Amino acid sequence: MLKIIYRFVPIYISICVLAGCEINSIEDVAIIQIAGYDYIDEEKFRGTVSVPEFSRFETGSTTSEKYFTATGETLKEIHAKLQGKSSKPLIHGKVTVNLYNEELAENDISFLLDNLLRDASIGREVYLAVVDGSSKNMIETEYSESERTARYINGIIKNNIEENFPTTNLHDFSYAYNAEGMDGFLPLLKRYSDHIDIQGIAFFKKGRFVHTVPFSDSFVFKIMKENMKRGNRKIEYENHDYIIENIGSGVKYHVVRKMEDPKFRVEINLDGILNETTRFKLPQDPKFLTKLEGKLEKDLEEDCLNMLEEFKEKNIDPIGFGNVLKSRVRGFDYDHWKEIYPSADIEVDVNVEILETGITS
Amino acid sequence: MIRPKQSGTQALSENVKVSPTLVFFLIHSMQVGIGILGFERYIVKDAGYDAWVSILIGGVIMHILLWMIYHILEDSDGDLVSVHNDIFGKFLGGLFSIIFSFYYLLLTLTVIRTFVEVVQVWIFPRLNVWVFTFLFLLLAYYFAAGGFRIVTGMCLFSVILGLPILALKFYPIQYAHLENLFPVIDHTLIEILAATKTVTLSYLGIELLLIYYPFIKKPVSSKKWAHHGVFFTTLLYLVTALVSFIYYSEKGIQSVIWPTISLWKIVELPFVERFEYVGIALWVYVILPNICLALWAASRIPRRVFHFRQRWVLILYFIILYIASGLLKDREMIDTLNDWTGKIGFYVLLYIPILFIIQKAMKKARKRHA
Fold first, then answer.
1. Which of A153, A291, B7, B33 has its CA 20 to 30 A from that of B217?
2. Do A342 and A238 lie in a common domain?
3. pLDDT at residue B2, as a whole number
4. In this structure, are residues A307 and A351 in contact, taking their beta carbons and an 8 Å threshold?
5. How far does CA A291 lie from the centroid of its chain?
6. ipTM tops the 0.90 cut
7. pLDDT at B277 (0 to 100)
């Protein structure tokens, strides 16, 4: 008996190990890297995907892109139609960017979000973005000879998250989508003839795109939303412009008054260095930097308050004050909170410290 | 009146026994299995994000049960079968023992089928369940037939191989929303206890000690290690739950079936882009001792009761498991299976204090009559 078992072991191991080898190689499948969806009418929408094509020549190998478009009423229908147009099986596992056009986003993207979260092969760090215009056109434009569109758009979002743009990906968006007292946001992109710009931030109420803030204000939103290490901001002071580079800012939310008549205080501490000015030399006034700090504090507080006022008007809560309150009070009543949020009292308190002024005085 | 001992375990020679230190691995690896991949979702249903308190309470309960199990076994100096024979006599005792055998078999079935489901959902949707379970069971049979020492070795391996996966908790911590855990204890005691009942199911596995106790050298010194094992399990569950709690929002986690596997999705290593495939493959090592030990224990009981050859019982159980896991088709059935195993497991744990009290009472009565 034992002998039989021992003889069997190598065969057994080889079955187990070799069964993992699939014959699909990278040339035999079409890997979708970017997918975009456009609104057609209340029932139908259009999906566009781009897959890289690898071709070998004597002079070397090149990659080009191929695009597929289909319309349908459900995602699966679109996928089936797309599959019908492709000579190789389309694989979703490597999608890095998903685009939705403005109209579609205004009409709720929840069902598309559900699909992304349900599919086991899709990661949680996919970027989602809203497109001003048609996402089909955005995908089908060639922006650079050396870089594929998917990688280009991916790069734009990733790069800006490290600077002025708030952190966003599928996980963050779905976190906010599911949380009580928090709404999500995505980057808003626009295509120009040869490049793409981040237009601003698209704010959502659950799955619906309802509000937007221009890109120039994303710094203000970001310092209220998260701790950041980069980004910069202009101050106008006595007819001159100064640029303060943020080298580390932190935000804390304080709940001053609780459930019945909530009041919040947003405390922002920002350390910066002055790295550009339009007036060649800084004045000799020893109090000058303190004054500059004061001006920046006032500017930022004003901008933050204005932005928060807009959020309340649109009844969205991208900062997540509801979520903050939920963690600070016992017996949080979400339905009650939804009613009182637009009238909630929010105070912003910014402390700026300018640490250095560069290597010239 | 002094009854003759019916344990029949004195016959076990030293070379089939394992050292007391290994009880740590036996206890811990049997407790941790397929459940840890998705238990958060179930405990959150009752107690929300205060469920970590339930995990701690559950851990304490396990320590108490373990203490009782040791008392029961020490008093009879045998295994579950001899305890049952002692208390209920040969026929009723034998019947109870056989029920336990079926319970262990059910545990094995649940682990195998649930793991195959994970593989089906995450990696190979078109997996042929019949072929896969056959190969898997063959492997389990190979270890279980090798005897208790082989199974113990498997447990040791599983704990060591599973440990590095813990380091990956670092990735979700980067996304931490610590405020999720506050306010601390915002649920009623009833809700927290309801979640404790759910969480005890994840702690199932210490009751196998009832069977392999005679296989431990110097069983008294193994006590310490068994308690360490339970403590380590509690800690592991606590860390796992806390990390999931700060990563998902409370509403969000309830729609995620396997929070831990979903967490692996964000792991990015330079040489592997999608870690969940590696994680699930590694998990085979975590669940294999579950299957082997439970299968071994299940087949050990009929041997002790009816004096069958253990190998024939193993083969019979192999066939039962194979057919049963092949017949369970979809998520709903597997969910029901898990539900039932949980319920039955809960009663098995409830049975331990009862057994403890009966035995203590009988001991006292016998002393008085002696």
1. B33
2. yes
3. 41
4. no
5. 35
6. no
7. 87
